[in-house]
Amino acid sequence: MIELDLQPESAPEFRLALDQLMSASFREELKIEEIPAPSNLATHAVAFSANVVAHSADDVSTDSGTGRMVLLWDPVPQESWESNFRTIIFAKSPLETDIGSDDMIADVAWAWLSEALNNRSAKYLAAAGTATRVISRGYGALAGQSDHAELEVRASWSPVGGSVGSHLEAWQDLVCIMSGFPHLPSGVFSIDSKFGR
Q1: Would you list the domain boundaries of the chain?
Q2: What is the pTM (predicted TM-score) of this model?
Q3: Fewer beta carbons within 10 angstroms: which end of the chain, N or C?
């Protein structure tokens, strides 16, 4: 559980959303912290950072993923929102270079986001975003470095119905999936990792 400033001056709908965020489940692989929210995008906003802090269940170190999430609320939302709420997320993780060079990995990353939202029953409208793969090669003083790759997802959507906590959970799932953790619901283990195979 995370403690948030309930912002008593906020609109009741946004205060309810803060309650729902505090009741969300949190992945043990991640360190989640509240961070300063942008003040110029909407009337009310709350923001979080996520950083991978754990190893996988079989004690093999995973790539370090990171992410940010912002929940916005406005009494007169932008037309493209189709709702008073808007979620903005960012997730990034290093990749093996051969995976990063695969043209399909961006499509896979977007599918991971869609699946994470669906698995958490996080209903939404007006989704938009990008999935970007970057392969870097060093030159000059950095010429000795191996090529390395990163995968990045930036997306936004409008939560509708249910609890906005499910959107926070789905974002965490995306960061974990991109960082190499099994795509399994919280508390469920693969047979290999559970029995040390």
Answers
A1: 12-182
A2: 0.84
A3: C
